[in-house]
Design brief:
Blueprint: H1 3-16, E1 58-59, H2 60-76, H3 78-83, H4 87-104, E2 110-115, H5 118-121, E3 137-141, H6 147-163, H7 169-188, H8 193-196, H9 201-204, H10 211-225, H11 228-240, H12 256-267, H13 270-284, H14 303-317, H15 326-343, H16 363-366, H17 376-380, H18 410-413, H19 417-433
Antiparallel strand pairs: 1-2, 2-3
Helix pairs in contact: 1-19, 2-4, 2-6, 2-19, 4-6, 6-7, 6-10, 7-10, 10-11, 10-12, 12-13, 14-15, 14-19, 15-19
The structure holds 2-acetamido-2-deoxy-beta-D-glucopyranose.
GO biological process, one term: cellulose catabolic process
Keywords: Carbohydrate metabolism, Cellulose degradation, Glycosidase, Hydrolase, Polysaccharide degradation
GO molecular function: cellulase activity
Length: 435
């Protein structure tokens, strides 16, 4: 498999998800400016960021998770990005969203966490450039807090601050200042963010609650600042909130597996290494469900994404000094990545490899450019998407490896910014092991 090509394409997928005024160096010829009035309803400039998936809502919580995980992969596997000549491109992607989060953090205890309404947005099938619907802006503040959202955004900005520390020290310091404030906001004013932003409840409600983000956020702030107090705080909360259990999956919702790896690495303590080992044993051993062809099948909706996340966590865990069963983790990650790239008999990455998906559930790429009209008829048509959404990982197979390349099937054929985050990091991590 050509890992270099996969990394290159995966970054292009993130560029295709851009909202706002596109830069001169936009590399997606079929994309233009969009969402230019985002934030007008509240008098704030909320242009920028990424569209979530095949739709055009800007959901701050999964967007922030995607940035944290992408950034983690860049920090951990920088050599792979450099070797693939993609380091600057991935930094541009991260900065695109970090800039948006900075704009959305309008004061110490105020953060905009969503633009666009899930229900209204989903009534429209078309290009973001042609959106006509009202796109309301939703925020959290001290009276209506949102701990998951504030803590994850803090983690994302802290991880970006690490990455930009050398190349843009002033920018990095500014990001870190926002991250520090956001974490304090998350910790001080506690509450589930879907109660403050009810529109998100049927889309990205955090079922795991906010305890996992409090630990995860503190760990990223520790890493970015070097401050011992954040590590002590993370350890205390980890203990208090029982974060050492063996999770089923690592995802935009549940950060436990990631925190376990970071804690094992930062402290070297046997306790955390044990928790890491338990999860790896679950993945590689008999605990987790596997499809007949070997994909670890953790959930139905976007099965590939959960498998990719597991592969990424395995490759990060394999880097923890003194960790046991390193080779097993690496082999596990390899098998998952190879499944998605074609070992299963087909590629699950749009535009890459053998028999790749042609009908991703993605409004923007499915539509022709005006004046040709785009509508639900386009959605229901049987042909391929009008443009190739290079690099997007589609949802994935059922637990029996069955899959149909059908636009209407968002469970198996949607794409999303969180799908590619762990995936891209896992490919980079695997690629880096090869030289
Ligand atoms: C572990 O910590 C070291 C030292 O800070 C760092 O270089 C490495 O990237 C970390 N790895 C993980 C998986 O956290």
């Amino acid at each position: 498999f050509d890992y270099n090509e996969v990394i290159t394409m995966s970054i292009l997928f993130y560029e295709a998800q851009r909202s706002g005024k596109l830069p001169q160096n936009n590399r997606i010829p079929w994309r233009g400016d969009s969402g230019l009035r985002d934030g007008c309803d509240v008098g704030v400039d909320l242009t920028g960021g990424w569209y979530d998936a095949g739709d055009q809502v800007k959901f701050g919580f999964p967007m922030a998770y995607s940035v944290t995980v992408l950034a983690w992969g860049v920090i951990e596997f920088k050599d792979a990005y450099v070797d693939a000549n993609q380091y600057n491109h991935v930094l541009n992607s991260l900065k695109w969203v970090a800039d948006y989060f900075v704009k959305a953090h309008t004061s110490r205890y105020e953060l905009y966490g969503q633009v666009g309404s899930g229900i209204t947005d989903h009534l429209f099938w078309g290009r973001p450039e042609d959106m006509q619907m009202h796109r309301p802006s939703f925020k959290i503040n001290a009276q209506n807090p949102g701990t998951e959202l504030a803590a994850e955004t803090a983690a994302a900005l802290a991880a970006c601050a690490i990455i930009f520390k050398q190349s843009r020290p002033g920018y990095s310091r500014m990001l870190l200042q926002h991250a520090t404030q956001l974490y304090e906001f998350a910790d001080r004013y506690r509450g589930s963010y879907h109660l403050s932003i009810p529109d998100v409840a049927s889309f990205y409600r955090s079922y795991s609650g906010y305890n996992d983000e409090l630990v995860w956020g503190a760990l990223w702030l520790h890493r970015a600042t070097g401050a011992r107090s954040y590590l002590e705080d993370a350890k205390r909360k980890y203990q208090q909130y029982g974060q050492g259990n063996t999770p089923k999956l690592f995802s935009w919702d549940d950060k436990r597996a990631g925190s376990q790896v970071l804690l094992a690495n930062f402290t070297g303590e046997a306790k955390y290494k044990g928790h890491v080992a338990n999860y790896q044993q679950f993945l590689s051993g008999g605990g987790a469900v596997k499809t007949p062809k070997g994909l670890v099948w953790l959930d139905q909706w976007g099965s590939n994404r959960y498998a990719a996340n597991a592969a990424f966590i395995a490759l990060a865990a394999a880097r923890v000094p003194g960790i046991a069963n390193r080779e097993q983790m690496i082999r596990f990650a390899q098998s998952q990545i190879h499944y998605m790239l074609g070992a299963s008999g087909r590629s699950y990455v749009v535009g890459y490899g053998n028999n790749s998906p042609t009908q991703p559930h993605h409004g923007s790429s499915s539509c022709p450019t005006p004046p040709t009209e785009c509508s639900w008829n386009t959605y229901h048509s049987s042909g391929p998407n009008h443009y190739t959404l290079y690099g997007a990982l589609v949802g994935g197979p059922s637990r029996t490896d069955s899959y149909t390349d059908h636009r209407g099937d968002y469970v198996s054929n949607e794409v999303a910014v969180d799908y590619n985050a762990g995936f891209q990091g896992a490919v980079a991590g695997w690629f880096e092991r090869l030289y």
